[in-house]
Each structure stands twice: as C-alpha cells, then as structure tokens.
Structure prediction request, 92 residues.
Amino acid sequence: MNDVRYAFRTLRTSPGFALTAILTLALGIGLATAVFTVADALLLRRLPVRDQDRLVVLWGAMRDRPFDYPLGLDDAREFALQTRSLERVAFF
Prediction:
C-alpha cells in the first residue's frame, strides 16, 4: 500500500507526465480491444451457414497474371449460371 501512495505522490508532482501516461495507456487498451474485436469477427468465429464442411472457395487463374486471384462479380455470376454440380452459389 505504501508503494501505491508513493506512486500517486510522484504522479501528482508531475501532472504532465501523469496525463501523458494515462492517455497512452487508455489509447493502447482501446486500440487492442478494437483489433481483437475485428480479429474475432473475421478470423475466429465460424461463418453463419449450415454445413460448413461443404463450402467451396473458388479462385481464378490467368495466363498473364503470375498469381491466383479471387473471382470477380461477373466471373462468379457466369459460374453460377453454368454450374450444375453445386447446390447454391454465393459471392462475398
């Protein structure tokens, strides 16, 4: 308890430092909370669909591009019109 009283006495003697320290801690805690909230929503929670083991992700490939890319909206619509082996097609 003596250490806590000493810490408050020291912070009272330099209010600029105390305010800076408190604001830095508050900003850090708030930022960490926001990042975890986004990571939880995007990475940790399951998708809100049934039968997740039946989901398929489609990627496209072109000769002039050295890497794969996600299908565009037009490509996904064309695929949905032509496919006969999938029950449903969704785009996100």
About this structure: Helices lie at 2-13, 15-44, 73-82. The first helix runs from residue 2 to 13. The longest strand covers residues 59-60. The chain has a mean pLDDT of 84.
